[in-house]
Amino acid sequence: MNGIPFVKMHGLGNDFVVFDGRRDPAVLDLDDATAARIADRKTGVGCDQLIVIEPARDDMADAFMRIRNNDGGEVEACGNATRCVASIVMGELGRNDAIIETVVGLLDANASTNGLVTVDMGQVKLDWRDIPLAEAVDTNHIPLSLGPLSDAVGVNVGNPHAVFFVEDAEAIDIEKLGPVLEHHEMFPERANIEVCSIVGENQIRMRVWERGVGVTRACGTGACAVGVAAARRGLTGRKTEIILDGGKLTIEWLPDDHVLMTGPVATSFQGFLHSSLLGQH
Ligand SMILES: N[C@@H](CCC[C@H](N)C(=O)O)C(=O)O
C-alpha cells in the first residue's frame, strides 16, 4: 500500500490518529489545515485528536508527542492519548514503563498487569495566571455563570479546564452551553468545559465539552481536573473514580500536586493516509 501509515487508537472512546514522525518525516510539520483535514470524520480519517510521535528532545525521555485537536490547532496536553502513546513506546522498548515528552514536560507512564496504563500527568496548576484566566480571580470560585452553570473551579493540567459541579450532570445541555463557555472572554486561550456531579463516595459522573473538538466520550486531562476540583472543594478525597460517557478513569491527586491517571488503551485499526489528505496530488 502507498501512503503514510497511521494507527487508530482510543482511550474510552476519545479517539486518535497516531502517526510516527520518527519513521515518516512528512508528518513532522503538518499545519493546522492539514491536521483538520485528516481529523475530519466525513472526508478524512476522523478523530478527536491527531497525534505525532517524534524523536525525544530530552535525554530522559523515550519519545516526544505532539497533539492537535480535531480543529487542527496544537495543544499542550492529552491524557488519553498519552496512555496510548506510552503503550506503543513501552511495546517498542519491551518495558513496562516509559517517559513521554510533551510541550509542557516529561510524563512518566507505567503499565500494570491488568492491562491498564497509569500516567503521571505532572503538577496541576491552580493559580489564575497559569489557568489562564482573564481576571485575577480565586480559581476555586470562578465568577462565571451561564444558565444552570455557575461557580467553576479552574485547573490547569498542562491545558486549561473549567469544572462545574451540578446536582445532575445528565440534565445539562452541554452541546448548547459548552461552545459559549469555551469561547467566553474569561478564557483568553479558550477552555475545556467539564460538568459533573458526585454520585457516590469518591465517585464522580463527568461530561465534557473539549476545546477545539466538542463533546467527546472521555477526556483524560478533564478527568484529572475534575478529581482535583472535587477534592479542592471538599466534595471527595484525593483519589476518585471518574465516570465518563466512554467508561471509567481513576484519578489520584498526590500531596506534591502531581496527578496520576489510570485507564485503558485500545487499538482500532491501522491504515495508510492517501497523499491527497496531505495536500499532495
Ligand atoms: N482529550 C484530551 C484533551 C485534548 C486536548 C483538549 N481538547 C484541549 O484543547 O486542551 C485528554 O484526554 O486529555
TrEMBL record:
It is found in: Cytoplasm. It holds the Pfam family DAP_epimerase. The keyword rRNA-binding does not apply. Gene3D superfamilies: Diaminopimelate Epimerase, Chain A, domain 1. The gene is dapF. Pathway: Amino-acid biosynthesis; L-lysine biosynthesis via DAP pathway; DL-2,6-diaminopimelate from LL-2,6-diaminopimelate: step 1/1. The keyword Isomerase applies. Keywords: Amino-acid biosynthesis, Cytoplasm, Isomerase, Lysine biosynthesis. Its main location: cytoplasm. This is Diaminopimelate epimerase.
